[in-house]
Amino acid sequence: MSPEDPDRQSLLARLKEKSVFFGDFALSSGGRSSFYIDCRLTTLDPQGACLVGRVMNAMIQREIEAGGLPVAAVGGLTMGADPVALAIGMTSWIDASPRVLQVFSVRKAPKAHGQTKLIEGNFAPGDTVVVLDDVVTRGDSTLKAIESIEQAGGKVAFVAVLVDREEGGSEKIRSLGHKVLSVFKRVELTGDNPREA
User: What pTM was computed for the model?
Assistant: First the structure.
């Protein structure tokens, strides 16, 4: 998708307006940052969700077609990936995409009752899937999702993220053999270069 794509530009503006904060923040990784990206304020916003669905579905469909990949579904670790996955799945159906994508969610721990599933929704052993995340920092959430999917008999085609904070997470995921695609890099949202920070 071209950086000049109107949907991508609208999504970037929405993220900057709703999801980027500057100050002094503690991160889940244990580090500190002068900015914080709360993608859920965009992915759970009606306009933002529609834009996320269109932009990310287009990126994923192109990758599926280019690689001839038998992708059945999209999902990731709850809850950052959940609204992203649903937006992509709905868009793939509404737009009559070449491949309609089912949606699943990976729990942080198995449910204690019922079927005691770790993966909820439309996932079955043997499925080839795309693992999603809203923001990748150190990559731990994405890697936890990948591990759960593989242990449940799934295959990971690639990883797709909304924002890459460019703090080593994507490299860690790639080092384990997984391709990582991102819609936005940190510099597009914050204006700073992580190599200079």
Answer: 0.92
